[in-house]
Structures are given as structure tokens and as C-alpha cells.
Design a protein that fits this description.
This protein is α+β, with helices and mostly antiparallel strands. Helices cover 14% and strands 29% of the residues. The strands form 4 sheets. Strands 1, 2, 3, 6 and 7 form a 5-stranded mixed β-sheet that branches. A 4-stranded antiparallel β-sheet has the order 8-4-5-11, with no helix packed on it. β13 and β14 form a beta hairpin.
């Protein structure tokens, strides 16, 4: 699956790129001024999510995009952008067999559990005006465990260093080509644009870099889980006029404390 800054997407068979010569091969035709923002492997059973700089996200079935036979076309519309907006990321998400009511009920239950243990804020999950899900579905202990095992989290970070994690269950699937849903509450100290959005695991770490050349490394587990329309919390306190320009996920390598100590030793004598 290919995605461009202007919101176009295209799906090709991997066999179309079985052989690539030294000079390269045309993968997708781009309009003037457009560029690629993401390429990922997917199956017809996956979902695709596009996130924009102005805090919108759209999730649709991968097979909503037909398989193209050629490599020199521009694709089809994945998301309809507002003026001044652009796609910043594409993510492939696993598709979970659950009704909208089941997903809403699970998110409500998980949020209540986090509040009860002091790990969550006193807020309710995001509900859209046109969403028919009530979250009142009765879930068995087994169903809660099943949905919990399949749950994914989406990290969003603004250009002023605010960030949060939200359950992928809050990003309901819609048709391709719409304007999508709110992915992050923007405005005020949170800034006006998103810098990054992608799925994360609890054991991952993040590297954030600013336009001023500053960098921090922080565990994903320290980023609060809240509703997708929340502004989140400060991850990186940026200086005036400074912006977060890059956020990278460091997957959990299982190295534990030994690896952390090794990284710290390698950095001795450096600037903090």
C-alpha cells in the first residue's frame, strides 16, 4: 500500500516489484509537488489508517482500494483534506472482529480500570455525533480478555511536544475518501499541527528530535493513554519557536536494564 501527502493511496501486488534493476523502478506516479509519506505491506484482511497534520485520521479496509495492475498511475483518494492540511503518516492495523458497541464498551471498561488504578485521567472515551455505538454492550470476562489481547494503541505527537496514546478501537472504520475523525485535540499549548502518528507497543521507546537540534529518549509506557480527542501531556518541553520535527519508535528489543546500561555507557562524556 502506498500513500501520498495529498491523500492518495494505491495498492499493488508485491510481485510487481519482484525485480528491481540498479537504476530503480517507478513505483507510483505523483502529481507535481506531491510526495510519498508511507509504504507498507498489507493483506486484504488489514485496515489502513491515514493521519493528517491538522489532527484528522481515517481508517478503512485495505481492500477498499482495488489492486492496481500498473505502476504508473496516481492511485485513488484515501482521505479528503481540508485547506492547508496534508497526510503525515500511514499505518496498517489488524482488523478485529467486533461490533462498534463491543469496541465502545471495551474502551469504556479499560478507561474505568485505568482510573481505578490511578493510571488514567477522569475522562470518557471520545464519542462522535454520528457514531451509533453506545458502549452499553455486555461483555463477558472472556470477551474482555480477547479484545484486550488484540488491542493496539496509536501514538500521536504534536509539533510542540504534546503527546498521547489512544486505543485503536476508538478509531472506527469508515469509507475511504472521507474527512476522517479527530485524532488529536489541537490548539493552545498543544500546537496547531501533528508531527507524528503511528502504532506503538507498551515496551517501546521513543526518540524525539526538534528543529533546534535537541533530542530526548523516553519510554512509551510513560505516555498517558487517553481519548483520541484529548490534547495529551507534555513529552518534550520545546523552547519558543522550536518544533518537534521527527519522532521515531524504538521497538522493544528485550534487552532490559543491561541494554539501557550499555547505551548510557556509550554516551558518557557526551552532552546531555
Amino acid at each position: 500500500m502506498f500513500a501520498t501527502r495529498s491523500g492518495d493511496v494505491r495498492r499493488n501486488k508485491l510481485s510487481d516489484f519482484a525485480t528491481v534493476n540498479r537504476a530503480g523502478k517507478i513505483a507510483m506516479k505523483l502529481e507535481d509537488g506531491d510526495h510519498m509519506v508511507g509504504v507498507a505491506l498489507c493483506t486484504a484482511e488489514d485496515d489502513v489508517m491515514l493521519t493528517t497534520a491538522l489532527g484528522r485520521a481515517i481508517r478503512f479496509k485495505a481492500d477498499d482500494v482495488r489492486v492496481f495492475k500498473g505502476r504508473d498511475s496516481t492511485g485513488v483518494r484515501g482521505v479528503r483534506l481540508q485547506k492547508g492540511d496534508e497526510v503525515i503518516s500511514m499505518a496498517v492495523l489488524g482488523r478485529v472482529d467486533a461490533t462498534p458497541d463491543e469496541r465502545a464498551a471495551y474502551v469504556k471498561h479499560a478507561s474505568a480500570m485505568r482510573r481505578a488504578t490511578g493510571e488514567g485521567e477522569d475522562e470518557t472515551p471520545t464519542v462522535d455525533a454520528d457514531d451509533e455505538a453506545t458502549g452499553d454492550a455486555a461483555l463477558s470476562v472472556e470477551r474482555i480478555a480477547e479484545l484486550g489481547a488484540a488491542e493496539q494503541y496509536i501514538l500521536t505527537v504534536t509539533d510542540t511536544g504534546f503527546g498521547k496514546r489512544s486505543s485503536a478501537y476508538e478509531y472506527r472504520r469508515t469509507g475511504r475518501g472521507g474527512q476522517g475523525l479527530t485524532a488529536h485535540g489541537l490548539g493552545g499549548r498543544a500546537g496547531t499541527r501533528l508531527a507524528a502518528s503511528f502504532p506503538v507497543e507498551d515496551g517501546d521507546e521513543l526518540l524525539l528530535v526538534t528543529s533546534g537540534g535537541q533530542m530526548i529518549r523516553t519510554p512509551v509506557s510513560q505516555v498517558r493513554i487517553v481519548g483520541r480527542s484529548s490534547q495529551g501531556v507534555t513529552i518534550f518541553r520545546t523552547a519558543e519557536g522550536e518544533r518537534v520535527v521527527s519522532v521515531e519508535r524504538l521497538p522493544d528489543s528485550g534487552g532490559g536494564d543491561d541494554e539501557a546500561a550499555e547505551v548510557e555507557a556509550d554516551g558518557e562524556g557526551g552532552e546531555s
